[in-house]
Amino acid sequence: MAGLRVLVADDDLGIRLSLSEILRAEGCEVETAGDGAEALSRLEAGHFDLVLTDVVMPKMDGYELLRAVQERRPGLPVLMMTAFHYDKDHIIKRSRMLGLEGVIFKKPVDPERLRQVILETVLGGGAKSRGGPSAR
């Protein structure tokens, strides 16, 4: 995963810090955002290989962020994570219908599961078809 540029969006500072630490230990370059609106701002300012976002956030939830990413950066993989097993607002279901790459259903995130999902997403179908620095 060395060299992957990952944007992490979560309103929980502790989660952002722990994900940053995990991803940096894997060799990723990481930027973080406290909500979806901030994530969009960071996305406009730089290149990323993956967006990892919480489902429930203030100002802009994961579904709204996914739609905005698809609009502004078609083909950029988005992964969602949630601490909840019940998706009362159907954010995950609606997001999957739009092509959501994957979901991690447990926070705090298991580092090995995170690594596996990122590799499957970025190096699996997404990056190879796009080419670029993330492709094998």
Task: Summarize the entry for a quick read.
Helix content is 45%, strand content 16%.
Key phrases:
single chain, 136 residues, Rossmann fold, five-stranded parallel beta sheet, 5 helices, 5 strands, globular
3D structure, described in words:
- Helix 2 (36-45) runs parallel beside helix 3 and helix 3 packs parallel to helix 4.
- Helix 4 links the parallel strand 4 and strand 5 (102-104).
- It is built from five helices and five strands, in the order βαβαβαβαβα.
- The chain has a single domain (5-130), classed as Response regulator (Rossmann fold, 3-Layer(aba) Sandwich).
- With 136 residues, it is of the alpha/beta class.
- Mean pLDDT is 81; it is low at 126-136.
User: Given the helix and strand composition, which structural class is it?
Assistant: alpha/beta
Kindly state the mean pLDDT as a whole number? 81
Biggest sheet: strands, sense, closure? 5 strands, parallel
Euclidean distance between termini CA atoms = 11 Å
Counted by DSSP, the helix tally is 5
Helix content: 40-55%
